[in-house]
Amino acid sequence: MELNEIHTEHEHATTSLKVLLLVFAIVLVGALAYLVWAQNTAPDTTDNSATTVKKTATATTGETADWKTYTNETYGFSIKYPAQIKDTEWKIIPVSGTTETHFGPVVTGSALEGYDGVWGISVITGKSADQVMAEFGDQFGDRKQSKKNIVISGKTATLVTITTASMPDWVSKNVVLSYGSTVFSIGNGALDNEVYSPYFEDFYSSFKITK
Hints:
It is built from four helices and twelve strands; from the N terminus they run αβαββββββαββββαβ. By secondary structure, it is an alpha+beta fold. The strands form two sheets. It has a nine-stranded mixed sheet, with helices on both faces. A three-stranded antiparallel sheet has the order 2-3-12.
């Protein structure tokens, strides 16, 4: 083989290698660009945005149409509560010596005569919302706490759910809302059952600031 033929073949080989490297570089850049695009357009699965409370297929309008309204002029809020649930009459149960008001079925003929608070609302001053939420379920060393931002009364609130493996039936749900120097905490009494739970969302979503 003559020298110029060897030189020509070498040039062809070099050109082919350059073309191959160029194609590889283009494919690599394209792949990296796709990964960046996919990462930036992937849906956010976190639940940090405030979402307006929407009624779910739990309690129907007919079942909540006769709810009564409790208004607290001192702290400037109102909230609706059931007149009855499952043929059981409900009433307002102020907790003496505290800023808590409970709502629950009327109890007669037992040690709990006149008191069986299921849901409640607390008015808290001197603490931040974060401090209040940190105390939920702190009696359990294995508590798990999840938070979801919602909107009630036109204001951002936080729905906090606390569970514990040591008491599987204990499921505490609290809606915490700050207004000025006051923190409102609306709770389900850690009672999460098929009788009352379908109505709890209607209860806390009816909360309104009145002053």
